[in-house]
Amino acid sequence: MTQTVLGWSAFLASTLVAPVEWLKNALLFHPSPTVNVTPAAHGLAYEDVRFGGEHGRLLHGWYIPGPGDAVFIWFHGNGGNIQNRLEHAYLMHTHVGGSHLLFDYQGYGLSHGRPSIPGIISDGRAAIRLVQERGWSKGKQLVFFGESLGCAVAIALAVEPALEVRPERMILEAPFYSLHAMGQIVLPPLAFVVKDDLNSARLIPKLRVPLLIIHGSQDQVVPFQQGRDLYELAPSPKQFYPIPGGKHVGLYGVAGQQYFQTIRAFVADEPPTGMTE
Fold this sequence. Notes:
Largest sheet: 8 strands, mixed
Low-confidence stretches: 1-16
Mean pLDDT: 91
Structural class: alpha/beta
Distance between the termini: 59 Å
Helix content: 25-40%
Number of helices: 9
Order of helices and strands: HEEEEEHEHEHEHHEHEHH
Strand order of the largest sheet: 2-3-6-4-7-8-9-10
Radius of gyration: 19 Å
Number of strands: 10
């Protein structure tokens, strides 16, 4: 009898894995395959890069060289693709400086494959490896720049024990507390399917690099309090930069020059102004 029950339990578990994973991916990822603009549209010199996967052609990205001693790896959110981050990257390049790697996860933009939670972590790992192998971070400080979902990816990688190259600084814009906490807001009956996935609240206490969290006070997607609660769990040194009236995206447009001044000061290790420490 016991063996029969165990057998049925194993059968049901294996049968339900595929639908649950499909449900997670369908709810979480909203990629766009369309890329018809490049950094050249903003007058930026760039290198079109292909990397990752068995044949080194799985993922697509843009490397934008720039002045200064910082290299930013961008971990974008769950919608669109790197094309949708071009204006932001252009303004960062102009007002903060540094070099920037923008890349798309599997299934986004010109990257092949399909997105998944383990996949985006693997994709981020490949991007870090690319920066190291191409020598872009040699003699420079590496900065992880996460946006929404990408914040969870950046945190997971920064605390990964086997990671060969670690960031010197981390910037998180509109981070969520955990995927489960977001599930309880977006679709409470199904939040349980992601209870063990992308739990930034569990991982961020392990962070060992200076941290800057940026969050809009009127964020309609990820509640402002989630960013604040995540900040409270992070070890020092850390800074929290609230943007009054800011929503989930376009915070640089709301805050204007103060946004870029804050990031520039953080990267340069200058004293913060108007923020919580």
